[in-house]
Amino acid sequence: MATVRFENKRVNMSKLSQFGFEPNQNGQYQFRTLIMQGQFEMIIELNTDGSLNTTLTDTTTSEVYVLHLTSQAHGQFVGQVAQAYQDVLYNIEQHCYDNDVFQSTPERKSKLFMVTILSSCGLNFHKTRFGDAQTRTNGMAHY
Fold first, then answer.
1. What's the Cα-to-Cα distance from 88 to each of 2, 40, 44, 132, rounded to whole Å?
2. For residue 20, what are the CA distances in angstroms to 32, 44, 96, 130?
3. Where do the domains of the chain lie?
4. Residue 137 in 3-state DSSP?
5. Could you tell me if 118 and 129 are in contact, meaning their C-beta atoms sit under 8 angstroms apart?
6. Between 74 and 107, where is the model more confident?
7. Which residues contact 7 (CB under 8 A, 6 or more apart)?
8. 102 vs 43, which has greater pLDDT?
């Protein structure tokens, strides 16, 4: 298993189901796909922090495949598997994640400070599952 985190990106929950992610029995969003003409099944699980856990399994032997994750492994086949793996991740990044405009820690702290100040002015905030602040005024959500 490998954990993947996209730099300066934030998961867009409304895009997950359109892409093919489905909730699993643990309540996590999960996406499954076959790569390399069905030789491998790739399972991607979304973590609450927006990172992804990925597992690549050989469909013939049901064993987890990890050579695509090591820089020491060489060869045409390993390269093809690594490229197919990266292509799936790139597609997920492009279709399920948005650019995060608050990229640095000071900007994130500033965002939190603004939420605190505005909350004290009577605006009600709540946190979404992945930590984005939303305001609620008169029953309407503002992002």
1. 14, 12, 10, 26
2. 8, 11, 10, 19
3. 2-99, 105-142
4. strand
5. no
6. 74
7. none
8. 43
